[in-house]
Design goal:
five-stranded mixed beta sheet
Length: 370
């Protein structure tokens, strides 16, 4: 697919709501927009990846399709959206079988997939024995509007003061990018670390902003006012404690952004105060740097060596990845907690609770009320 560019002149006095990487979490999308009191007077910009990694991909696509008819909603293409569209428009039985295999694995990973939902609506159960070659042509006809919608999403949205793209752009000459290969702009991994700066704001998703954290995980958006970059992906559907980040501008002329977040996690109320551990002493294991050495294995918590320093991690987070002992995303950071704080509960152990407070994950060791 080639790069397409949509230019939009936003009207003064209208709020601009922006988010990315919904990944099949329709309930979360609806909840956060309800919390924001989203109305037709607002402009909603969705910076790609509507589908997969969640159980409500089809519902998400249909909700966004409907809002484009009743509200000012501008959805963009994400790399996962493009990937699904390419499979769904293919006439290759080999690709259909590949999508079937992926979707069967996705059921265990994320509780569903776009193909599962489509098959269920057609009265078919997707299993390894499903005759996908016989089913796929009917599926393509049945869901032609949704498939067409995914394929029609623009790559770049350019407004008066902001440019939106799912992964990133190498420069601000947008006209030169039109009709080039869209994929590098949709899957621009680690965009913020490319060292680029811009005259206009460039807002992206794709790469979870938490991966830019150094000492402990921060799931809120990264906003660099000097380089004019916003990375808003909250890792919804990708991390256990991932969230949808909704940034709100009161008006397109403003450089002020407020944040609403949704993570779908259960909540607890802290009953005790807790002091934070020194941030510079905290360690944070993330998926692109998660190799560890096991020092002592415990029933709940184990001691591992991470970058030459011992660290306590949940035993259930330790796994083998391509033959290398690894640990799922976690930190040993102890959060600052005030009595009465409402916390998102990620993991409950006798050792303590792994929680999230105001977009930051860490440990709480006090009493709480569920």
């Amino acid at each position: 697919m080639k790069v397409t560019l949509r230019r939009e002149a936003l009207e003064e006095g209208r709020r601009v709501l922006m988010l990315s990487d919904i990944h099949g979490h329709a309930d979360g999308l609806k909840a956060i927009l309800k919390k924001a009191r989203f109305t037709p007077d607002d402009v909603l910009i969705i910076v790609g990846d509507l589908v997969e990694k969640g159980p409500q991909s089809l519902e998400t696509v249909r909700a966004v399709m409907q809002w484009t008819q009743t509200h000012t909603v501008i959805p963009l293409m994400g790399n996962v959206d493009l990937w699904r569209w390419e499979f769904l428009t293919s006439d290759s039985p080999a690709l259909w079988r590949e999508m079937q295999a992926f979707s069967l694995n996705a059921l265990g990973w994320w509780g569903g997939s776009l193909l599962h939902e489509m098959c269920a609506e057609m009265g078919e159960e997707l299993t390894e024995h499903t005759d996908i070659e016989a089913l796929f042509p009917s599926l393509q006809r049945r869901f032609a509007p949704e498939i067409h919608f995914l394929g029609s999403l623009p790559t770049i949205l350019d407004t008066q003061r902001m440019t939106f793209v799912h992964g990133g752009i190498p420069h601000e000459n947008l006209n030169a990018l039109v009709d080039t290969d869209a994929y590098p702009l949709l899957k621009f991994d680690d965009f913020y670390q490319a060292g680029l700066s811009f005259q206009k704001w460039v807002a992206v998703g794709h790469w979870p902003a938490v991966l830019y954290s150094q000492t402990y995980p921060v799931f809120g958006p990264l906003i660099d006012r000097q380089r004019k970059i916003i990375s808003m992906d909250g890792a919804c559907g990708v991390k256990t404690e991932g969230q949808l980040n909704l940034l709100i501008q009161p008006d397109f002329r403003s450089d002020d952004f407020s944040l609403l977040a949704w993570d779908g996690l259960p909540r607890i109320t802290a009953l005790e105060d807790q002091a934070a551990s020194p941030g510079e002493e905290a360690r944070y294991i993330r998926w692109n740097d998660h190799a560890v050495k096991l020092l002592e294995k415990g029933e709940e918590m184990s001691t591992v060596l991470y970058h030459g320093r011992p660290m306590l991690v949940p035993t259930q987070y330790i796994f083998l990845h391509d033959g290398v002992l690894s640990c799922s995303d976690t930190t040993d950071y102890r959060l600052e907690i005030n009595r009465g704080d409402r916390l998102s509960l990620i993991l409950k152990l006798n050792y303590g609770c792994y929680v999230k407070k105001q977009n930051v994950s860490g440990w709480y060791f006090g009493r709480y009320k569920e």
